[in-house]
């Protein structure tokens, strides 16, 4: 999103995180802008029964955790490395200075936040009113548009695990598996070597 050169010009540091390492914790106040160089990060929290709900999954060149940074509010979720990753960390004061001095970047950040807000609104409606198959398909279609899933001769490779689909849609993994099989029978999805394609 923001070029590495510009981030480094404003003093961003690179930090490596191991798989399952916490980038920031729910309840802490934000002090950095984060942008992924390589790898994958999820933002999630847990209910009283210990069930995880994934707020979002972020990939290379995507940023995460900005709303609390702008609002000076505590993080509503944990950010955890899904796999080994490297992340730019830019202090809040330098990030605000970067935005003030680069209005085109500010517009990109606003567009990105609007996209996420739109996704949350759509998914909130889907989770509260629709059947599992519909929820799964809506998430997959959003993933194709937003996460730039790769396309090959089989279609778009859906880069979510069954567990991640469940955690993103509020469904149990068993329900996700049944929904994917039903969608395959209807011709909406393909399953090739256990991988899901749209």
TrEMBL record:
It comes from the Bacteria. Residues 17-116 form the Cyclic nucleotide-binding domain. Pfam families: cNMP_binding (PF00027), HTH_Crp_2 (PF13545). Residues 130-198 form the HTH crp-type domain. SUPFAM superfamilies: cAMP-binding domain-like, Winged helix' DNA-binding domain. It comes from Flavobacterium limi. PANTHER family: CRP FAMILY TRANSCRIPTIONAL REGULATORY PROTEIN (PTHR24567), LISTERIOLYSIN REGULATORY PROTEIN (PTHR24567:SF28). This is Transcriptional regulator. InterPro entries: cNMP-bd_dom, cNMP-bd_dom_sf, Env_Response_Regulators, HTH_CRP, RmlC-like_jellyroll, WH_DNA-bd_sf.
């Amino acid at each position: 999103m923001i070029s590495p050169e510009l981030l480094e010009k404003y003093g961003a540091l690179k930090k490596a995180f191991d798989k399952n390492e916490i980038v920031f914790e729910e309840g802490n106040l934000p002090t950095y802008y984060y942008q992924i160089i390589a790898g994958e990060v999820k933002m999630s929290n847990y209910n009283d029964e210990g069930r995880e709900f994934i707020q979002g999954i972020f990939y290379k060149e995507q940023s995460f955790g900005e709303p609390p940074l702008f609002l000076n509010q505590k993080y509503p979720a944990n950010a955890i490395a899904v796999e080994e990753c490297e992340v730019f960390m830019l202090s809040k004061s330098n990030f605000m200075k970067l935005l003030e001095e680069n209005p085109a970047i500010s517009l990109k950040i606003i567009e990105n936040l609007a996209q996420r807000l739109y996704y949350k609104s759509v998914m909130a409606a889907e989770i509260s009113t629709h059947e599992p198959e519909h929820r799964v398909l809506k998430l997959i279609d959003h993933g194709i548009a937003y996460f730039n899933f790769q396309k090959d001769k089989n279609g778009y490779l859906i880069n979510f695990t069954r567990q991640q689909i469940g955690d993103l849609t509020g469904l149990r993994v068993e329900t996700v598996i049944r929904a994917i099989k039903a969608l395959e029978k209807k011709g909406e999805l393909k399953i090739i070597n256990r991988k899901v394609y749209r």
